[in-house]
Predict the structure.
Amino acid sequence: MFVKDLTFPVAKIKGIGKVSAADFASLSVEKASDLITLYPRSYDDRTRLSSLNEIGAEGGKLNSAVEIVEHSHYMSRGQRVLKMTCRELSSGRTLYLHCFGRSFMESAYPAGTSWFINADVTRTGSVFSASSFTLGASEEQAGLGRILPVYPLSGSLTQKAVRRAVNSILSVKYIRFDDELPLSLIEKHGLLHTDEAIRQIHNPQNAELLDRAKKTLAYTELFYLELKLLRTKDSAVKTGPVRPSSLEQKVISSLPFTLTADQEKCLDEIRADMDYGHMNRLLQGDVGSGKTLVAWLSALHIIAQGCQAAFMAPTELLARQHAEGAAQLLKDTGVRVAFLTGDVKGKERGYLLDALKKGEIDLAIGTHALFSKDVAFKKLGLVIIDEQHRFGVEQRQALSGKGRRVHVLMMSATPIPRTLAMTVFGSMDVSTIRTMPAGRKPVITHIVDEKNRERMYASISVEFSRGHQAYFVYPRIDDEGESSLKDVTSMFSFLQAKYPEVPSALIHSRLSEEEKIRILDDFRAKKLMYLVSTSVVEVGIDVPDATCMIIEHAERFGLAALHQLRGRVGRSSLQSWCFLVYYGNLTEEARSRLVVMRESTDGFRIAEEDLLIRGPGEFTGNRQSGYLRLKMASLTEDVELMAQAREDAQAVLAEDKGLISAGNSMIRQLID
Ligand code: ADP
Ligand code: MG
């Protein structure tokens, strides 16, 4: 049988009454199979002898041997309590055992005798004592020499009760679990058979078998996860010659630079998707890696086939910037570009909607307003979503309703480690731009104690004199209430006094869209030389002559946000700087974040660090998503194992797509 075949309710297990059944239910344990897969959250390893020397102020477990030195008594709450003074054999240190209600111990453990002991020891200064302990003549009697599982608990459940319940199932004679993996994979990775893995996870014989059991169960989970993902993927054959249309070629040859190899590669993948299958692809690349250009060329590819394309940006501001960029790039191509946001109203809106419906617009650029109910396309072929993680699932789904089998290209500047990306984005394909356009100089990053900010102001001053621009960023003002936050406005006055000759503006999320747009236009036109802002500059703004990014309270930003912000500079061949200004004493974690920023400009490296700090949920926006709820494997820690599982799942499907061979029969039975 398979584990999943144990379908009887845990309430049927001897010793489990109504109350414990309810407690188990709150741990999502209802059937016996759930109990078998209620894996221990940790282990109490009593196989290794320890010593009082290892026990610090917080106390701890002792597995050791002691000699009884003497007995004494004292009164506590009207009761006579036996106190046994012991000497630990290995260290010679003294341990006091308080035997509440256990006066019989005086005769059972006479002075001068030696015993194995397992105890929860508390330490006060240099005095060690324990009131919860087991003494035994052998290690076994003292409960030593074993690795005990420690389960998650709920309500009145105890470790003992859970262990007993699990073992009452495992000790049933006819229960033997069938393998959940083909033998070839078990052998390839040195895994255990499923039955043994289950038994070892609950009753580990030794640390080595426990490790193999964990690996087996984690690998099994990942293997099925990957297999399911691969199977839901579009199975159309996506190969064949891919040619850029003459429209694309024309634009490419008009560029003042050549495409990077990665841009070319991604475009090949995108064109192949669109020509030979159905595209559902994530294009990821660091800030400034040139994703937007790839997006426009992809749009041209589908437009050349007589379809329309839509480009959705997360804010009005960005949508507008993109619309201007596209109009500029495509001005000699005859491609008809339109800009549509919630702000476009009245007659103009009516005219636009009509043109979209009639197919008189080839490329529509806007916010999610593009997908509101009244918008209809004549023949929508491709939807591009910029900064995809800023949109909710529903918004992303709304667009697929606007045409039949619309190709979808999502873009993300929050790079995700490759293996993880494949898994969290499920059935999506992933294209990655890894290398930056040539000629970019890595941004130089300094960590600045706010008390030493003067030198920083001096170097920024030099940049102003060279005609270069700067951003000063503060944490959002909508996080108000924290009085320690520097008020953007007062800092703005401070900077104006510092640089009286330099034109500047304050920009924050409470300004109207028009005001923001006007300020950014002036900044781009160099009528303004620096912006003081809340983190509104976080995404998308592209001003090549901006060379300084000053982030105040850098210790309050996450790595991803810091990296995004820094990506606003270093966008041309000019040398750029980023100053991470911190306040007060840094926590260990904050310091390591800032150091990661200083040491690396590689978004992928930063993403990996971030992943370790925050966990994968943050990357996908679907922490709740069912398929990512793993019991043994960790998407964060088992990246290596996940890559193997994916490779193996691919190989299995390549050889036996329908999973019909005898060796794969268990996969067929287990996959749904
Ligand atoms: P992303 O959207 O990935 O953050 P952008 O598309 O905004 O990056 O590109 C940043 C800048 O790099 C833009 O000014 C763009 O024109 C320029 N760029 C794009 N591709 C190249 C290339 N192959 N060589 C040089 N510059 C490029
Ligand atoms: Mg971009």
In short: Residues 207-232 form the longest helix (26 residues). The first strand starts at residue 42 and ends at 45.
